[in-house]
Amino acid sequence: MAGSKTQPGIPNVPERLCALPLALSMGDPAGIGPEIIAKAWRARVARAIPPFYVIGVQDALHAVDIDLPCQVIARPGDALAVFDTALPIMEIPIETCPSPGRPTSDGAKMAREAIALGTRQALRGKAAALVTAPIHKAGLYGTGFDFKGHTDYLAHLCDQDESDAVMLLVGGGIRVAPLTIHIALKDVPKAVTKDAILRTAKIMLRDLETRFGFSNPRLAITGLNPHAGEDGSMGLEEQEHIIPAILELQNAGHQVSGPHPADTLFSDAARMGYDAALAMYHDQALIPVKTLDFSAGVNTTLGLKIVRTSPDHGTAFDIAGQDMADPESLIQALFLAARLAD
Fold it and tell me: Three-class SS string for 180-240?
């Protein structure tokens, strides 16, 4: 990848351009996906953005940027010749393109098909990686979509188990994964098990080495309870599940520490002691990333057969089509995808 800008959360490695373009699924066409995609392409020269092509609906792009030059392509490789002068797009037919801010079932179906096509192309070596713009889960559920979201759907498309996929947030100079994601807080304690921690930690350690380029990566693991349980006085999950998992990982030769109180693990000084963190639940992981770098955090899925990244925000229907959407998170997702694919 051209340019000298160091991306947050990525080790310093030689920058070079991917030999293949990135596939970018549009997400819900009624959301801010088309707007941030158009803005990212218009920033391609100033930001040295790696070549990508969009899988989606051209009309949705023109609804937010009527002067955006687009060119329909038949093959992913065609994007490399087109990207400098027009936004390459692989069209998915849709009966009626939804207006910005007004999601439809047709738009949701298109979003699902775009993810599936981009995944197939990445699996077949036609695209360097997959970058996914935001989807509207409720809209997808109304079309018969029986997955919780992007992550388990991608695992299915890659013919992998849902447990193989780990969500890692990158931003503000940190990398942190939640052990449990979209479940009620009251259900978290019973989901914090030794086996779940071991499975997730091993995927993180492997991908930190093979994709992020860390040699013998350092992983910090949080506790579940305040003060990491304080020797069992504030909960027993640390003693019964978290500490045994940490000890097993350490005995296997991994640089793993914890359990750390989550309220102190993300300070400037503490972050010097690890390369990534494993948190026990959604907000424990996402609050520090969004606090440190709200507009540029990136979500990447570890454990998959393909590289996948996405912006760390939703469809934002309330501002769609109003030229208010910030493309920075998508731009960073494109950078991260290119670096991990290299």
Answer: CCCCCHHHHHHHCCHHHHHHHHHHHHHHHHHCCCCCCCEEEEECCCHHHHCCCECECHHHH
